[in-house]
């Protein structure tokens, strides 16, 4: 285990398929911190799946639940994997910047799209590829406000985790 002398959360942001959950679990383990997957938190709170939440409350409703879960989760010191749309609301950026370090897991859209295109658990993937790419491009500007950006495309999960630990220790 590697310890970091910090009193803040580590937020992982990035588009769907960037590996936020996998990297987050492994990073938390390495740092001896709690791990929170925001989407799982929301699902548990409502006892509904993400597609079920989108069906019942729409995207707008989901975004409000996401902010609520972020607020609640940010009170603990943990590694927090966020959903790809966390950057859609400015207020979420404020919460994360206020008490954490934000790490952007970057990868080209075409790589991400190949990973997510068949996934029935991601409601936003059902639309047209062009629309999703537009969303990606818009969000990228927000993701880039992170404290640290990693190009994950050519790296193994272990390399990504090690790079984050190195950054946090700087
Ligand atoms: C979303 C990403 C998903 C989930 C929901 C909406 C988005 O999380 O929060 O389907 O808006 O990009 P992942 O990034 O973990 O797939």
Would you spell out the secondary-structure blueprint of this structure?
Layout: E1 9-13, H1 20-31, E2 34-37, H2 38-46, H3 50-73, E3 78-81, H4 90-99, E4 100-106, H5 109-116, H6 129-143, E5 148-151, H7 157-169
Parallel strand pairs: 1-3, 1-4, 2-3, 4-5
Bound molecules: shikimate-3-phosphate.
Key features of this structure:
binds shikimate-3-phosphate; 7 helices; globular; five-stranded parallel sheet; 54% helix; 170 residues; alpha/beta
Please give a quick description of this structure.
This protein is an alpha/beta fold and about 170 residues long. It has helices at about 20-30, 40-45, 50-75, 90-100, 110-115, 130-145, 155-170, and strands at about 10-15, 35, 80, 100-105, 150. The site of shikimate-3-phosphate (S3P) has 10 residues, from loops.
General description of the model:
The chain is of the alpha/beta class. It has a single domain, classed as P-loop containing nucleotide triphosphate hydrolases (Rossmann fold), CATH 3.40.50. The protein has seven helices and five strands, in the order βαβααβαβααβα. The protein has helices spanning 20-31, 38-46, 50-73, 90-99, 109-116, 129-143, 157-169, and strands spanning 9-13, 34-37, 78-81, 100-106, 148-151. A five-stranded parallel sheet has the order 2-3-1-4-5. Residues 16, 20, 39, 50, 83-85, 122-124 line the site of shikimate-3-phosphate (S3P).
């Amino acid at each position: 285990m590697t310890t970091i002398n910090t009193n803040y959360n580590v937020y992982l942001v990035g588009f769907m398929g960037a590996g936020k959950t996998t990297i987050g679990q492994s990073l938390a383990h390495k740092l001896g911190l709690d791990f929170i997957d925001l989407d799982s938190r929301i699902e548990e709170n409502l006892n509904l799946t993400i597609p079920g939440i989108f069906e019942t409350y729409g995207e707008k409703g989901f975004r409000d639940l996401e902010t609520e879960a972020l607020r609640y989760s940010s009170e603990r010191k943990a590694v927090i994997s966020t959903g790809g749309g966390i950057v859609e609301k400015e207020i979420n950026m404020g919460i994360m910047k206020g008490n954490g370090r934000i790490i952007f897991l970057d990868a080209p859209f075409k790589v991400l799209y190949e990973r997510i295109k068949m996934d029935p658990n991601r409601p936003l993937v059902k639309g047209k590829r062009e629309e999703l790419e537009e969303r990606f491009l818009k969000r990228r500007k927000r993701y880039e406000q992170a404290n640290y950006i990693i190009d994950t495309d050519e790296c193994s999960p272990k390399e990504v985790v090690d790079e984050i630990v190195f950054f946090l220790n700087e």
